[in-house]
Amino acid sequence: MTVTNGEVHSVTANGGLTNDKPFKIFVGYDPSEDIAYEVCCHSILKRSSIPVEITPIVQSELRTNGLYWRERGKLESTEFSFTRFLTPHLANYDGWAMFVDCDFLYLADIKELRDLIDEKFAIMCVQHDYAPKETTKMDGAVQTVYPRKNWSSMVLYNCGHPKNKVLTPEVVSTQTGAFLHRFQWLEDEEIGSIPFVWNFLEGHNRVGEGDAATFPKAIHYTRGGPWFEAWKHCEFADLWLKEKDECVKEAKK
C-alpha cells in the first residue's frame, strides 16, 4: 500500500535540485503500532505542500518477496529495527527518499525538511547524543543504549549515492546492528546533519523558553506514545491524540 497526495509537479530543494516525482517517504510499520503509523502518515499528508508518496515497510511482505530473512533478535523492539535500511533498495537506488519510524508526529510542512537536502551527503539525519535512563520502553520492550542511538530513526537517504548501494537485502539481512545503526558503511563526513527539531525526542529534547527555533517540527515518541497505556500521559500526548481524532474522523468519511 502506498499513499500519495496531489498532482506531480516540479519540486525544488537546496542546491537547485529539481525532481518531477513525488518525494518518497518510507515509514516503518509494526502491526502492534498500526494507529501510530496511520497518525504519522496523516500528519505528513495534512501539512505537506509538495507531492509525497508514503510506503509502509512491512516485514512480512519483505520476507514473502525474498528481500529480508534475518531472524528477529531479542533486542529488536519493532519489526522495522533492521528493515529500515532497505530504504535505498526499495527506492531503486534512485533520488532521495526518507525513512521514518511510525512513532513520529509531524507538525510542519515536509517541504521544509526536503529543502535541507544537500547532494554532497550520502545520508542526512539528526545527530543525537542520547542515552536514555529508562530500562524499558513502549509496551515493556528492553531499552538499549548504543553510539548514535536514534540517528537511524529518521534518515534522508541519497539513494543513488555509490556508498548506499552497499545496502542490499543480503547486507541488511546479515550485517550486525552496529554496522547498520551506526552507519559504518559511511565516513563521518558523508553524514549530513539536520536540526534536532525534525527528530525531537519526547522526554529528552526541550523547548527553550521564548525560543521558537526549539519548538518541534516532528515529535518522536521514542520512549512510547499515547497509544500505549503506560505512556498515555507523556509529553505532547495532547497533540498526538488530537491528530488521531482527526485521522479517525476522516477515515470514517
DSSP E strands, number = 14
Total discrete domains? 1
Helix content: 10-25%
Spatial gap, N to C terminus: 20 Å
- Tell me the name of the CATH class: Alpha Beta
What is the number of helices? 7
- Would you identify the regions where 5 or more consecutive residues have pLDDT less than 50? 6-18
Helix-strand category: alpha/beta
Instruction: Give the C-alpha Rg.
Output: 17 Å
| Biggest sheet character | 7 strands, mixed
CATH T-level fold name: Spore Coat Polysaccharide Biosynthesis Protein SpsA, Chain A
Mean pLDDT: 89
Q: Give the name of the CATH superfamily.
A: Spore Coat Polysaccharide Biosynthesis Protein SpsA, Chain A
- Per CATH, the architecture is Alpha-Beta Complex
Strand order of the largest sheet: 1-5-4-6-11-8-12
Task: Write up what this structure looks like.
This is Nucleotide-diphospho-sugar transferase domain-containing protein. 22% of the residues lie in helices and 19% in strands. With 253 residues, it is an alpha/beta fold. It has one domain: Spore Coat Polysaccharide Biosynthesis Protein SpsA, Chain A, CATH 3.90.550.10. Helix 1 (34-47) packs across helix 7 (237-252). The protein is globular, with a radius of gyration of 17 Å.
